[in-house]
Structure of Branched-chain amino acid ABC transporter permease:
Amino acid sequence: MLRGRPARTLLLAVLLCLPPFYLDAFWLRIGLFSMAAAIGAVGLSLLSGTAGQLSLGHAFFLAIGAYGYSYLASDPGPGLPPALAACCAVLLAGAAGGLFSPVAGRVKGIYLGIATLALVFLGHHVLLTWDSVTGGFNGRSVPPLTLGGFTFAASDPELVVLGVPFGAEERLWYLGLALFAFTWFTAGGLLRGRPGRALAALRDSETAAAVMGVDVARHRAAAFVVSSMYAGLAGVLLALAFRRVVPDYFSLALSIDYLAMIVIGGLGSVAGATAGAVFVTALPLLMTRYADQLPLVTAPGSAEGSLGPTEAARYLYGAAIVLVLLYAPDGLHGLARRARARLARRRTPSGGRNPAASASATSAPSSASPFSPAEPAAAAPRSKEHTP
């Protein structure tokens, strides 16, 4: 039997493969949007949480991934095979990050945040005006992804697995799961390796990192490129899940949402970015579905002045950001880590000491005590305790 981390990883993988057999399309759609958001949030966490670089332009690179795939795989357009178009869209987002990397390598803090903010406004203007590529205000439809003759969309003939019909959401669930697993392991390996240690050193002290031989500008630029490629991959998955991309989705509000994800989940943590992405993505969708059952929240399209589910969700995770900054600066991941440590201490008896040794030490009188009676010289031999 496997124990420890391999067993937990295997169990989690099995559990994540089961939802398409039991959940309806609404819950699968929430899972797809959450996995896409988690991929993008992991990239932003590498940049802002690990490298310490503030970015407000994450929506720009998400748009490049989404629109890049939609244009490259469709007609009118180059009409590339969908798998090749997806890879090219990710590389295109990385190339855009590379073009901006000289700025990211030399500017830091709020100045980099303002510089990346300009990318969002510039990108939104291009999406609205470059009609031949982006479709303008109405956007453009997204062609389905095809791998080896298998289409990740509802198509004929209908696919039935164990008596369950597999439509677009069911098929895309496993694609999103594979992309998320790829992101999880590559980002985790990056953080545990020398590049991750170099970026953490840059975040803590640039002077100390430079003294230790870290190329400050090069590592900052590399972090920006890697973060852009993760955002492009998230944009491709979002486009496949939405099936149509429009410019208004890739606005400044989306960049703020991604900042909220990594702050709530915990900066510099892959697991924390995932938890924050699920929270920020799923909350408005759940509030929209159950708006008629929640107090002070009205259904979408109600009269003006009422509190809609989207606005209520933003208030809630805005309050969550304030609470995290005040009481848990390391986010949900830090809270979970401290809870596991507290449980481990409670499971260890006597603070981690050997209870048999403690009992023998307290029961046997000390020969140096002035209050112990003097023993005769020829005392009976005492049996030796066996150490387990």
The CA atoms of residues 185 and 270 lie 9 Å apart.
